[in-house]
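Review form for a predicted model. The reviewer records the input and the model, then writes brief findings.
Reviewer: anonymous (R2)
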Amino acid sequence: MSHRYADGRVALDDISFAVEANECVAIVGPNGAGKTTLFLRLCGVLAGKPGQATIGGLDPAVPEHRKKLPEVVGVVFQNPDDQLFSPTVAEDVAFGPLNMGATPDEAKARVTEALQAVGMPDAGERVPFQLSGGEKRRAALAGVLAMRPSVLLLDEPSMFLDPRGRRELIAVIRALPGTKLIATHDLDLVLDICPRVLVLDAGKLAADGPAEKLLANVDLMEKHGLEVPFRLRHA
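Model under review:
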């Protein structure tokens, strides 16, 4: 897959990889590496050429397939305020299922199921903008889970969270079923929940392999603007 923006900037440069069902894979790299662009291509927000990608058996660049993507692929963006817009959390979480044709009763059941999955079973009547940062992230995740996707794309899920919120979110993500791709600068989070890591830099796939092995490689980390996590450093 390659992607060039209108200003001529190449964001993805002929990258190629495969992720198996139920894998949890981290995508790491410096700012501008192409991580968010990759996610936007995989979920069909950015247009591309047919034949460059399939996700859950669908090609995001084919219009007929793109219409079905929300049932297969869920995306949680960096800023949860970009995803929360309804008067209550329950209405926000129900929005996707109702738009996809669910009955009110089915949507209500999905709201209950999704809020339970993110550890916020009693938050349905709360106002989204009054939630803490960690709660907003979990509410945004619930809105995605209510669609019951088989693939989750999580963009910087732990950004700006305090230690408690971060721990709670990691526990939620670890327990979720399905395939997970996580773009993050939080390399300790990677070690906690992702057995495999892809290293992106300047739109190219620089490395692909076991998380502990790659993240402990000092030369690889320094070359691509990253640091070896403290727990992997040797005295």
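Findings: The domain at 1-72+152-235 is CATH 3.40.50.300 (Rossmann fold).
Further findings: The CA atoms of residues 26 and 197 lie 5 Å apart.
Recommendation: see findings above.
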